[in-house]
Specification:
- The complex is a heterodimer of chains A (about 675) and B (about 425).
- Chain A has about 675 residues and is mainly alpha-helical.
- Chain A is built from 22 helices and 4 strands.
- Helix content of chain A is about 65%, strand content about 0%.
- The two termini of chain A are about 15 Å apart.
- In chain A, about 55% of the residues are buried.
- Chain B has about 425 residues and is α+β, with helices and mostly antiparallel strands.
- In chain B, the strands form 2 sheets. In chain B, strands 3, 4, 5, 7, 9 and 10 form a 6-stranded antiparallel beta sheet that branches. A 4-stranded antiparallel beta sheet of chain B has the order 2-1-8-6, with no helix packed on it.
- In chain B, helix 2 runs parallel beside helix 9.
- Classes of the chains: A mainly alpha (about 675), B alpha+beta (about 425).
- At the A-B interface, helix 5, helix 7, helix 8 and helix 9 of A face helix 1, helix 2 and helix 8 of B.
């Protein structure tokens, strides 16, 4: 019944979609629907993105030549501070989790809404209030402390620190409540049969992010609260004149802001896992490793904050410990990158706009991550600290990775929640513009940073001019590309082509939902299929994918697919242990042949029964690899236990949730 | 077309699963309860982290400046703190009891327990208010406003603001004019020549008991240490910037070099003064005729290489006859007695004290409003054994607020 609906992706949906359920401004402003709240976030974030980008362009333009070009030094300070604060607090942190996560994550879970819709709306308004307070600093003289608000300067400056930190406090609680909401949603709203390892990796990433949002952001809250109290009541906690410790502020700040960097990047990684698997038409390589690496990144993020403070007067011991811990971050990050690359290997890659962004992400994140290792080395950091090298490094991670992933995700899910397609070739063009513009902007910054150009300086030595000019040209290419793609997305919302239910052939639940989804996301309870298995998805016309008889419904077909690909048929009902063993042996023999160049490998072509003996001989060449084929007795023994019809791993009891929901 | 889906918002309030408070997107009441419970636990984890920065600050300053803590915590009133601890624990009990009452559908008990919790919370805030206002009057505040009138033992301290009415008897002695400018001097034999360059005076203050005949008994002479006599400067009465000013009784007073015409031109203002502060309680005025306070000042021998001719002169200064009972005697034998001047940056203790207890107090205040909201709902009879989530969540919140206080009390009040 549900599957019938899936086979007619563009068939009529009886219920109105969430965009048209109710009308009028009030129905949006007071909505409790996670998709509408997410879309309001998205609008706010895109506007902030353009504003923050404009500030960046002002900064870059001023740096075209040494000396004053068109803004004074003080104004320059205001602009780079605003650029940082707007981009970090208003765009990147809420970008993927609060906006796209809100829209997509509950649908990926097959849930009707997030756990606490009212809290969700409250989070949104906290975000709005925080954003307005940040904007309010502009008429009051504008902030000049940098987004990091370091004491003691932030205690002395005449600029409106109090307003800014109030805004940051509210934004922090917006983030905390969003994280709390998502944690509960992921725990309590998975349909029956969707275990932790049947979650889309995007959900895993949002889960890891939510842990950090809930546990790290309160520390930012109390820190800016203390800073605010310090400003108006002079309690002295960060004021060395009264015995306070300004470095303590840095510790507190980075205890939040380092996890915040991961709050920014991990959702991006989740998105990339989805994009790469979908557009390579291959199951994600090493699902569990990718999932676990998100969580381990989240946990590691709490113990490396000191690497921002190598030259802030920490003890030498602390420096060494933080430096060593910093390198451990490389492990989960590398696991992810290798798994993505392995997923791409021999994939049927389709270069749609989201995929172009994803591939850009891979390269940019690798550069950003590796240059992070440079900065983690104590001796190198002393030289590179507070130079453009650092600026380039964190832009590669925050912007080159997170923002690029955000744009990719936006294009990927855009058809789902708006019901419209964006112009594909324009999207592709913009994604290339973003990629090349970005590299042109920030690669020269690595060079001039390593040559000693300090960050945040308004004036500079003429020897750096060529790098600044390249960077500025790149910034304009980047800015224009993003601007065009944002405008084209707004344009397509009204004028775009109607989107089908599943334009990319995605396997997760949101592609079963109507496009755009109905109020409670699904007109029928969704059916769980094996995640990241694209065998039964077929593109019947460009950008319209349908699910043929799902392999879960037809074990014989699943076996046929498995044999075609030479894969072990462990995700099907039909395969007997004996069949699986043969498939195992075949795979093993393939490996051996590839290693020893015995004969031409079959590249996973079907197992030829006549050649099974040869497979055995070849596989045995690994020597001592143990039993390659279970003995007949053992097979019978195991098969007696493993009754036919029992559920195999990967997808449990798909029918149960539908029964359960129908009761109501 | 949209009739069945009228205003999403409305649907959230009125589910269709039995209890009127189960929202539409939950499977059933249990699902809603479990979700809320997980949510509140996560929120509590957030609360712990919210307070964590303050605990870290506490630990750091304690490790680096332990002397500040062991000195300053004596200013806090352990009795008040202990009473507050008891009050909060009681309120936690009533909060937990309220949950039980809700589960058992005992409406009256529920209302009583919630009301008792609110009462305890308010009681806590009142006691905290008393403590705070006492500290406000004593100027034992945070950061810049830390300007205490007394040491924890009741010894006087010179304050930056000199705004400790009724606390300190301030006596300033003008060497040149030969009289007290303030306070309750009766006579003086001190005679230092202000025109003599580089003259110093060192004063020692004694308490001398009066005999039955009303005359001082020299044998009962006992040095008083709760005296603050700061160094005198050139025409300045006190070294105001040197704070806190606590000094032992034996003080050198440096006379300016009035051979310098510029200084002589300042006239009386250029004359040296010695200020001696003796503490007496307001009620001490009643008991004057038991003893007198005397100050003996002397000109110490200058370094021989400088001036061989100067003799050592003794001077007597009789201060306020009949300052009978000083705090010294009142607290005799007490540990807090003779607490010296506060160590540098003692203000940091109160920064942390007020930050921690203040943030905790805000949480208590929020708790009061939450429980008032619960009380209204309980009176309306909205809680049933099937729907008592809010009571449970609020009680959990209340327990963490309680728990934080359980940590604050020993950390701030008890640990030496």
């Amino acid at each position: 019944m549900a599957t019938t609906a899936n086979r007619q992706p563009d068939g009529p949906v009886k219920e109105p979609d969430f965009l048209h359920v109710t009308r009028g401004l009030r129905s949006w402003l007071l909505t409790l629907d996670h998709k509408r709240i997410g879309m309001m976030y998205l609008c706010g974030i895109l506007i902030s993105l353009i504003v923050g980008g404009a500030f960046a362009l002002i900064v870059r333009t001023e740096l075209w030549a040494p000396g004053k070009l068109f803004v004074s030094g003080d104004t320059y300070n205001n602009f780079f501070t605003l650029h940082g604060a707007v981009m970090v607090f208003l765009v990147i942190i809420p970008g993927i989790p609060a906006a796209l996560g809100n829209i997509i994550m509950p649908i990926q879970l097959g849930a009707p809404d997030v756990a606490f819709p009212r809290l969700n709306l409250a989070s949104f308004y906290l975000w709005v209030a925080g954003a307005l307070l940040l904007v309010l600093t502009i008429p009051f003289g504008s902030l000049d402390t940098g987004w990091t608000l370091y004491t003691p300067y932030s205690l002395e400056t005449k600029t409106p620190v109090l307003i800014a930190v109030s805004g940051v406090f509210l934004l922090g609680f917006s983030s905390i409540f969003t994280g709390l909401n998502f944690l509960v949603t992921i725990h309590k709203f998975r349909p029956q049969g969707m275990g932790w390892f049947q979650l889309p990796l995007n959900v895993w990433a949002i889960y890891a992010t939510a842990i950090m949002q809930v546990l790290a952001t309160p520390v930012l809250g109390i820190t800016v609260l203390l800073l605010a109290v310090e400003r108006f009541a002079h309690i002295g906690i960060f004021d060395p004149n009264m015995g306070g410790d300004p470095v303590l502020f840095q510790h507190f700040f980075w205890f939040y802001s380092h996890p915040a960097v991961y709050i920014m990047i991990i959702p991006g990684m989740g998105v990339i896992s989805e994009l790469i698997s979908t557009f390579a038409r291959k199951p994600i390589f090493g699902y569990r490793f990718v999932a676990y690496s998100s969580v381990s990144l989240a946990l590691l993020s709490f113990i490396v904050w000191g690497h921002h403070m190598f030259v802030s007067g920490q003890s030498r011991l602390a420096n060494m410990v933080f430096s060593a811990l910093t390198f451990t971050v490389g492990i989960p990050s590398a696991i992810k990158v290798f798994n993505w690359v392995a997923t791409l290997y021999k994939g049927d890659i389709r270069l749609k706009t989201p995929m172009l962004y994803a591939l850009g992400f891979l390269l940019l994140f690798t550069i950003g991550g590796l240059t992070g290792l440079f900065l983690g080395i104590l001796s190198v950091d002393v030289h590179l600290h507070d130079t453009y090298f650092v600026v380039a490094h964190f832009h590669y991670v925050m912007m080159g990775s997170t923002l690029v992933a955000f744009l990719g995700a936006l294009h990927y899910w855009y058809p789902k929640f708006t019901g419209k397609m964006y112009p594909e070739s324009l999207g592709q063009l913009c994604s290339l513009g973003v990629f090349f513009g970005f590299n042109l902007t920030f690669l020269p910054q690595f060079v001039m940073g390593s040559r000693g150009m300090p960050r945040r300086y308004w004036d500079y030595d003429p020897q750096y001019q060529i790098f600044h000019q390249l960077s500025t040209i790149g910034a304009y290419v980047l800015g224009i590309s993003i601007f065009i793609s944002v405008v084209s997305l707004f344009w397509s919302f009204k004028y775009g082509k109607k989107a089908p239910r599943n334009p990319w052939g995605g396997s997760s639940l949101e592609w079963q939902a109507p496009t755009p989804p109905t109020l409670y996301n699904f007109e029928n309870p969704p059916v769980l299929h094996e995640l990241y298995n694209y065998d039964d998805l077929e593109e019947i016309e460009p950008d319209v994918w349908v699910r043929n008889t799902p392999i879960e419904d037809a074990p014989a077909r699943a076996d046929a697919i498995a044999r075609q690909t030479g894969a072990v048929a462990d995700h099907t009902h039909g395969a007997s242990l004996k069949e699986k063993a043969i498939s195992d042996v075949h795979a093993k023999a393939e490996e051996v042949r590839a290693e020893h160049k015995l004969t031409e490998t079959s590249h996973g072509r079907p197992v030829d029964p006549a050649k099974i003996d040869q497979d055995f001989k070849d596989a045995a060449k690994v020597s001592g690899a143990g039993e390659v084929m279970p003995t007949a007795e053992k097979v019978e023994e195991v098969e007696a236990k493993d009754k036919p019809g029992s559920v195999t791993q990967g997808w449990d009891v798909p029918e149960v949730p539908s029964d359960d929901k129908e009761k109501k | 077309m949209s009739t069945s889906h009228d205003a999403h918002a409305d649907d959230h309030g009125h589910g269709h699963h039995g209890s009127p408070f189960v929202q539409h997107h939950y499977d059933d009441a249990q699902h809603q309860f479990d979700s809320g419970k997980l949510g509140i636990w996560i929120f509590l984890a957030q609360e712990v982290l919210f307070f964590s920065a303050l605990f870290v600050a506490y630990i750091l300053y304690r490790v680096h400046h332990g002397e500040i803590y062991s000195y300053a915590h004596k200013w806090l009133d352990v009795k008040m703190g202990a009473i507050n601890t008891a009050v909060l624990i009681t309120s936690s009990l009533t909060a937990a009891w309220a949950v039980r009452c809700a589960q058992l559908n005992q409406r009256r008990g529920l209302i009583f327990c919630i009301a008792a919790t609110i009462a305890c919370a308010c009681g806590f805030l009142v006691i905290k208010y008393i403590e705070y206002s006492h500290k406000y009057h004593e100027q034992i505040l945070f950061g810049r406003y830390f300007d205490p009138c007394e040491t924890p033992g009741g010894n006087p301290l010179i304050t930056k603001s000199n705004d400790c009415p009724g606390r300190l008897g301030t006596v300033k002695w003008d060497f040149g004019a030969g009289k007290a400018t303030e306070g309750c001097f009766e006579s003086s034999t001190i005679d230092l020549d202000p025109r003599e360059p580089g003259v110093q005076a060192e004063c020692e203050v004694f308490e001398v008991k009066l005999g039955h005949d009303g005359k001082p008994e020299e044998s009962s002479k006992k040095p008083i240490t709760n005296v603050c006599a700061p160094k005198i400067g050139h025409g300045e009465e006190w070294e105001k910037n040197k704070f806190p000013c606590w000094m032992p009784s034996y003080q050198p007073a440096v006379c300016p070099d009035l051979t310098d015409p510029a200084k002589r031109a300042q006239g009386a203002a250029g004359r040296p003064q010695v200020g001696i502060i003796v503490s007496y309680g307001e009620d001490d005025h009643e008991h004057r005729p038991h003893s007198i306070i005397k100050a003996e000042c002397k000109k110490p021998a200058p370094p021989p290489a400088v001036d061989l001719t100067t003799e050592v002169e003794h001077h007597k200064l009789e201060l306020g006859r009949g300052l009978a009972k000083t705090h010294v005697e009142e607290h005799h034998g007490h540990d807090l007695l003779y607490a010296g001047p506060p160590p540098e940056h003692t203000n940091m203790f109160f920064t942390i004290y007020f930050a921690m207890t203040g943030l905790h107090g805000i949480h208590v205040l929020v708790g009061v409003f939450v429980f008032i909201w619960l009380l209204i709902r309980a009176i309306k009879g909205q809680f049933t054994p099937d729907y008592f989530g809010p009571v449970d969540y609020a009680a959990l919140y209340w327990h963490i607020v309680d728990l934080i206080w359980i940590f604050l009390f020993p950390l701030l009040y008890l640990i030496v």
